[in-house]
Structures are given as C-alpha cells and as structure tokens.
Amino acid sequence: MPELPEVTTTINGLNKVLPKLTIKDVWSDYFLRTKNRRTDTIKNKKYFEYFKREVVGKKIKNAERRGKNILIHLTGGRTILIHMKMTGHLLYGKYKRISPRQDLGHSKGLASGEIWIPVEKGFLQDSFNKFIHLIFTLSNGKHLAFSDMRKFAKVMLFETDKRDVLVDLASLGPEPLDKTFTLKKFREILQPTSAFGRTESASGETQSAQGYGGRRIKTVLMDQSVLAGIGNIYSDEILWTAGIHPERTPASLKEKEMKGMWKAIKIILESSIKMGGDSMSDYRNIYGEKGQFQKAHKVYRRTKEKCLKKSCGGIIQRKVIGGRSSHFCDRHQK
DNA sequence: TGCAGTGTTGCTTC
DNA sequence: CGAAGCAACACTGC
Fold first, then answer.
1. Which residue gives the smallest C-alpha to C1' distance to C10?
2. How far is the C-alpha of A82 from the C-alpha of A156, rounded, in Å?
3. Residue nearest to nucleotide B5 (CA to C1')
4. Among A8, A59, A245, A250, which is most exposed with the fewest C-beta within 10 angstroms?
C-alpha cells in the first residue's frame, strides 16, 4: 500500500541510518522465478549482475522520495530507484542468511532455497522475512532488506544527472505537499481550459479541449502524471473529506469544491505522515513497525458501515472505478 | 475448498 | 482520448 505517506515514512527512516554507509554486498533472488521480461530491472539476471557491480563499494549519500518512488543516491553519480508497488517495504537491521527447511511454511515465495532472517529480536521478527528478495549488506554490519511478497516491485539504477529524462520520474505530476502546489496550480490542472492534459491533433486542432475535465475525479487524483503520490486509499479519504462523489468530473467542480479538495489533500497526507503511514495491509516502517493511519480511515474499506460525518446518516458504498474499489458516502458526497 | 479481493502500474483492446 | 480487462504474484478472508 505504499502511497505518498508510506514512502515518506520509509524515506525519513532511511535518512536517519543510511547516509555515509558503504554498500559492501548485494543479494537478490528476484530473477530466479519471474515471468517479467523487462531487461532494465533487477528481475533480469544480467541486469542484476550489472547492478551489483555498479553498487558494491559505493557510499550512500541520502534517500529521496519522488511520487511513490524511493531514490537512494550513491557516490559515483548513480541513484537506485525502488518502486514498492503493492507489497514492497524496506527493512533495516541485522540479518543472517539461512537455508530453511521446506516444512517451515515457506512456500511459493521462496525461489532460491535461501532466506534472510533478523538476528535481533523485535518487530523485524514478526513476518515478511520470507519475502525478502533483495538485501544490501552495509559497512556497519547491518542490512537493508527489501521484502516484496507479490514481487511486483521495480528496482533499477540510473545516472543521477539523467533524472529529468528518466521516464519513471519525468512523467510525474507535481508533489501535492510541495509549497509550490498551490490552490491556483491545482485549479489549473483541473480546469477545462487548462493546458495540462491537452493534446494537439495532426491538424493542429485541440483534441480534448476539456483537458482532464471529462474524466472521473477519482481516477484523476490517482493519475501519477497529474499529481504524484496519491493512490486508492488516500483518494477515497480525500474525496470523502471534501464531500465530492468519486465519479464527478473535474469540469463540474465549483471553486469551493476545488478548494476543499486541495485542503483535504494537504491535511490528509500530512496527518498520515504524522501517524507513520497506513498499515491496514502490509506496510511497515524500516524497523518493521506498523503505521497508524488505518485507524483514522473515514471511508476506505468501510463498505456498508455508517458514514462517520457528523449527522450525515449515510451508508458507505463500494463501487469499482478505474479498476479500483472505491468507497464513498452517496449521501454527503455529491 | 475455491474464488474474489488486495496498496500499483502498464499493456492491449474496444 | 478514455475506460475496461488483464497480467505480474501470493496471500487473506468469506
């Protein structure tokens, strides 16, 4: 579930422990059992060998978030990009490698016949260790482990000064928590006359004069090229707070509604960061600890329950929108 | 037991 | 353009 607040929580943790450490070794079993044919990620064996050659011996400068991507900047002008997708999370601690017995419950996820387990007692002990598919050995004797149950994650290396042309980063919209993401900017993105989202046809005619204006607001909020970092949970929570139905179009939004949504974006993302992110599913911080935002959900996964808006009296509905399950109150979200 | 559902993204088809 | 369906993968819950 890593969306913006979860990635931020991870980045904050990484920046407390990683800077100035050197990567001494890298291990992965991603490439052993995957149908992914991309050759530019570590799921490809040749690419992983290259990745390992480039990364071992480099010192870590710092970590940065861009959208839902984790960027780990190294000396030598290279940056590691990690997109956690559905189930990825980075864990920091002291690990050791073992060859587990198959009867210990390690099933399909285990491809290599080896797993890494934490040496010290604590949160890292509780789970997810059998899903570690990438691990860095650091110069202080500790490890940075990447657990990824469903193996959807993307890990690659790029030249730091080419970040502006790397499509994973270049295609992203503005950062919603950036000071420069003003109400004016949000309005420009959503308004029908906006230059955003318009394309020119061969004849030079404006093809979609409405920009994003005709799409459903839920899918627009989740569109990483419109705004970077918002996913299914936070789009539901933002729309509930702003009182806007997920199927409304940006073109139909009144000024007051845009302002309410803009404020909700800032408030909800910031409050989740303060709570250490959302651990309704398997997100954990780098020490394996849960975040708390799942306790503050107003709509997400509350299908058929009462709307929590004061004196609303509505019942939370669930409907698939843009291929994602969307939760909303059809009484106060108009 | 079996199958729908799960935070993300990208590709294909209509 | 945009929406829908599905694939990548493995587990949980009904």
1. A150
2. 7
3. A325
4. A59
Pick out the nucleotide with least CA–C1' distance to A68: B8
Over chain A (334 residues), the average pLDDT of each successive run of 10 is 94 98 97 81 95 98 98 98 96 91 50 80 84 97 96 96 95 96 94 49 37 89 96 97 96 95 98 96 94 96 96 95 95 96
Strand B footprint nucleotides (protein C-beta < 7 Å): 5-10
Which bases of chain C are contacted by protein, using any atom under 7 A from a CB? 1-11
Q: What single-letter amino acid sits at A211?
A: G
A143-148 and A132-138 beta bridge pairing: antiparallel
Q: What is each CA distance from A172 to A161, A169, A229, in whole angstroms?
A: 17, 6, 9
β strands within chain A, DSSP E: 23-28, 60-66, 69-74, 78-83, 88-93, 95-98, 115-118, 132-138, 143-148, 154-159, 316-321, 324-329
Catalytic machinery residues of A? 2-3, 68, 324
Query: Which amino acid is residue A163, in one-letter code?
Result: R
Prediction pTM value:
0.93
